[in-house]
Amino acid sequence: MTTKFGLSLVLIVLGASGPAIAQEAPGNAASPEAIACPPSIQVQQTPSPALASDWQTRSSNDTHPLANISFYAGPPEEMAQLAPSSAQRKGKTLTSRWLFAPTDRVYWVACEYAGTSATATKPLDKNIASCVAEHDMNSSPPVLKRWSCR
């Protein structure tokens, strides 16, 4: 299984206050943005090119569950994956936060699935300033429990 916990390109976007997370007052807290990854995707794989004549290949059409998310500064094919602005482990839960600096570029989310490199991606609304994700550390690799954006 390939997940993107090891990053080959990391673009860190920090606000003017640096990596610190500002606490929102309860009365001023923005409501979470209703964004959800598809809970699973079906992936059809066909081996290519043909192998030597004494080898047989088998295609697959498997369903893969949601395992992780990533955020990008621009379309994911540009490979500008963002590292979390902060991460905190409490017990068996890892909570990661991404702060998005104001920009003319659009931030994107990529939903990643266990056992495949196939992803589901979409641009985030311009008004989203941050996202948070919780991962269950009981699994190896850790599995996404929930996430939201504000």
- Helix content class: under 10%
The CA-CA distance between the termini, in Å, is: 30 Å
Poorly predicted regions:
1-31
Tally of contiguous helical segments:
0
Order of helices and strands: EEEEEEEE
Average pLDDT works out at 80
What proportion of the residues form beta strands (DSSP E)?
35-45%
- Which quaternary structure do these chains form? single chain
Strand order of the largest sheet: 1-2-5-6
Taking the sheet with the most strands, its summary is: 4 strands, antiparallel
Counting DSSP E segments of at least 2 residues, the number of strands comes to 8
The outline comes out as globular
CA radius of gyration:
18 Å
Helix vs. strand class? mainly beta
Concise structural overview:
This protein is mostly beta strands and 150 residues long. The chain has strands spanning 40-45, 60-73, 86-90, 93-99, 107-113, 119-123, 130-136, 143-149. It contains no helices and eight strands.
Short descriptors:
single chain, 150 residues, mainly beta, 4-stranded antiparallel β-sheet, 8 strands
Account of the 3D structure:
The protein is an all-beta fold and 150 residues long. The protein is 0% helix and 39% strand. It has strands at 40-45, 60-73, 86-90, 93-99, 107-113, 119-123, 130-136, 143-149. The strands form 2 sheets. A 4-stranded antiparallel sheet has the order 1-2-5-6, with no helix packed on it. The two termini are 30 Å apart. Residues 1-31 have low confidence and may be disordered.
